[in-house]
Description:
Layout: H1 5-10, H2 14-25, H3 36-60, H4 72-79, H5 94-105, H6 111-122, E1 125-130, H7 157-161, E2 190-196, E3 199-207, E4 209-210, E5 215-217, H8 252-257, H9 259-262, E6 270-271, E7 277-279, E8 300-303, E9 308-310, E10 322-329, E11 350-353, H10 360-367, E12 372-376, E13 381-383, E14 388-390, E15 395-400, E16 407-409, E17 414-418, E18 423-427, E19 430-432, E20 436-438, E21 452-456, E22 459-460, E23 480-482, E24 488-492, E25 495-496, E26 499-501, E27 506-510, E28 513-515, E29 522-525, E30 536-540, E31 543-545, E32 547-550, E33 553-557, E34 560-562, E35 575-577, E36 585-586, E37 599-600, H11 636-639, H12 656-670, E38 676-681
Parallel strand pairs: 2-38, 7-8, 11-12, 12-15, 13-16, 14-17, 15-18, 16-19, 17-20, 18-21, 19-22, 20-23, 21-24, 22-25, 23-26, 24-27, 25-28, 26-29, 27-30, 28-31, 29-32, 30-33, 31-34, 32-35, 33-36, 36-37
Antiparallel strand pairs: 1-2, 3-10, 4-5, 5-9, 6-10, 8-9
Helix pairs in contact: 4-5, 6-12
Amino acid sequence: xxxxxxxxxxxxxxxxxxxDQESGNSLVPGQEFDGPLKALxxxxxxxxxVLEENFDQLYDDQFIETCAEWVVPYIGGLVGTRGLIxxxxxxxxxxxxxxxxxxxxxRKGTAAVLEQLARDVTGWTANVVEYFQLLxxxxxxxxxxxxxxxxxxxxxxxxxxxxxxxxxxxxxxLDVRNIESRRGKYNIPNVGxxxxxxxxxxxxxxxxxxxxxxxxxxxxxxxxxxLYNHPVPEDEITHLSTPVNVPMPISRTVMYxxxxxxxxxxxxxxxxxxxxxxxxxxxxxxxxxxxxxNMPQSKVAVDPVLGRIAFPALQPPPQKVSVxxxxxxxxxxxxxxxxxxxxxxxxxxxxxxxNQHPTIQAALNVLEQTGGIIEIxxxxxxxxxxxxxxxxxxxxxxxxxxxxxxxxxxxxxxxIFGGENAVLSLNGLLVSGGCLxxxxxxxxxxxxxxxxxxxxxxxxxPGPSAQIGTVATQSQQPRLIVEMADVTVKINKSIxxxxxxxxxxxxxxxxxxxxALSDNAVAYCGLNGLDSYGAVLQVENTTVIGKVATRIMQLxxxxxxxxxxxxxxxxxxxxxxxxxxxxxxxxxxxxxGSRLPRRFNCQPADDTDATRIxxxxxxxxxxxxxxxxxxxxxxxxxxxxxxxxxxxxxxxxLYQPQRLTNLRTRLNEYLRFSLQAxxxxxx
Length: 683
C-alpha cells in the first residue's frame, strides 16, 4: 500500500473530509484548495515516502545486483573478496567482481576459471596452460595416457607451428626453476597465464595498395603488414582459449590448413568477392628483380605474414581491389575503425564526402564563409591537396565518419589559412605525403590569423611515403610546419612525423607519438632546423623519437624523450629548452646531457643509472603491431614511472602495471593449494 496524501485523506471519516475541503475552498472564493488537515497529511505522506524508500533500499542492499554503491565493499568483505585497483576505463567494476566471486569459487583451481579471472581483471585476452599435463613422464601401465608422448613427432605440423607459444603442446622434461619469476615452466605445480596486450583492429572495404596490375598489398600505404586474427568470442566459462580466440598474428601454415576459419566475409581476412584463395609465401625474389616468388597461375594468392595479394596470370587483372583485414596495435590512437564520436565537434552543419560533394576541396569551397563539418563516409583514397581557407570566427572540421579511416594523399603541402579566431580540426584521417603547413600569409599577402589547429586521432605518416595513384614517392620530411605566429596547435591521440614550429606559437601534444625515425634525427625544433628553437611546447603522455629543441618547455609530463646524447660539443643536445627559468618536467625519461628547466621525479635520477635506465621498445618501425610498445626488459623506473605508477609515454593510460597487480592480487584466491602461477606476456 502506498501512503500518498490522497490515500491517507480517504481513510478519514467522510464528515471530516467535507469540513476540511470546505475550509480550503473558503480561502479564495471560486477556487479549490486543500484544507489545513489535508495539507498536514501531505507533509506526513512525504516523510512516509522517505521511510518507504529507505526500507526498500535496505532490502535491495542485501543483494549485490541492486545494492547501493557504498554497500559493495561490505558485501565483498562478507564473501572475502579482495579489493582491486580501479582506474579510468577499467573493464571491470567492483560490483561485478563481487557478484562473480561465488560462481568463480565453485570452479576454484580449474584452468577455466583462472582464464576467465585473468580476462576480467586485466581486460586482456588470456590463455591458461597447466604445465604438469605437458611433462614427459614414465607412465603406469594400468593407466596409460596415449596423448602424453615423450617423443615429439616432427611430421605433426600443428605442434611444430606452435612451439614456444602459449599453444605449445610438445612435452618437456622437468624444469625446477620458479615459474613466478618466469624462469621455468614445466613442473608439477606450475600453471602459466598468458596475456595478449596487443589487440586486433579492423579495416573494412578499404582499397588495397597497387604495386602493379597483379600485385597488391593489404595496407593502403604500401607497407608489408602482418595480418591479425579477429578473436572469436568464447560463450562458456568452461572453454579454454584456442588460437582463433586470441588476437595473434596469422601464420601462413595455419591459414593454409584452416582457411575457412580465417578467410571470409565475417572472418579475419577477405578480398572483394573472391571466395577461393590460396595461401602461400609471396616474399621478394632474391635475384634483385623486385618480383615476388610463388606468383599464382589460377587462384588469388594471399600472404598473411607480409600482407600481400597476387592475382593469377590466367585471369584478367582486377580493375579495383577492396579488402577487409585486421591489424595489431596497443591502443586506439592514430585513427581507425574504432569509436571516436566523443571527440567530434557538434552544433555545426554537416556535409558529406563523397555523398554530397565529390572531393574535400569541393566541400571546403562551400563551407569557407559559413563554417561546418566535412564528414568522409568511406575508407577510400582521396588523392588531392586541399587549400583550406576559413572566414573570421568560423570553425571547420574535416573528419572521418565514426568507424571509418579514409586516406588523404597529398602531392604538395596542405596550406591552412584562417581569419581572426578561425579554427580547423582534423579527426580520424590517415595522411600520406606532403605536410600540414600554416603559412604567415596567403598568396595575396594577407596575414594568416588562424586561432588554432586541432589534430585528433590522425596519422601524419612518419617517414617516406610510397607512390599512390598519380602522387609520386616522397622522401622523409617534417609533417607539420607552423610558420605563422600566435597560433595554437593541439595534437591528441595521433601519430605524426617531425614538427617544425615558429618560436612565437604554442604546441600542445598529448597521448601521441612524434616520430623522426631515429634518435639522432630532430623531431621538434624551429623553422631553421637544428640551430633554431621551436614553439612553446606542452607535452603529456607522449613518446617522442628524436631530438627536441623548444623555446620554452612549458610542461613535460609522463613523456619518453628517446633521443641520442650529444657526441661532441658541436652536436645538438638530445632535449633542450632555450629558457630555463620557465616550465617544468615531471615523471619523464630525459636523456643524459639534456638542458631543461626544473625536474621532478624524472629518470635517470643520476648519470650512474643512465646505462640501466633507458627506454627499450619492442619495435620503433611504424606499422608494426608492437610500435612504441615498451619491452618487458625495460627498467621498472620507466614501466612504472609515470605519475599514476603506470608506464611513461604514449600508453600511460592503459594502466598496464595496475592490471598485472590486480591479477596477482586475485590469483591466490583461485589457485589450488601447492600450485604456483606465472604471468607471461604473449604480446
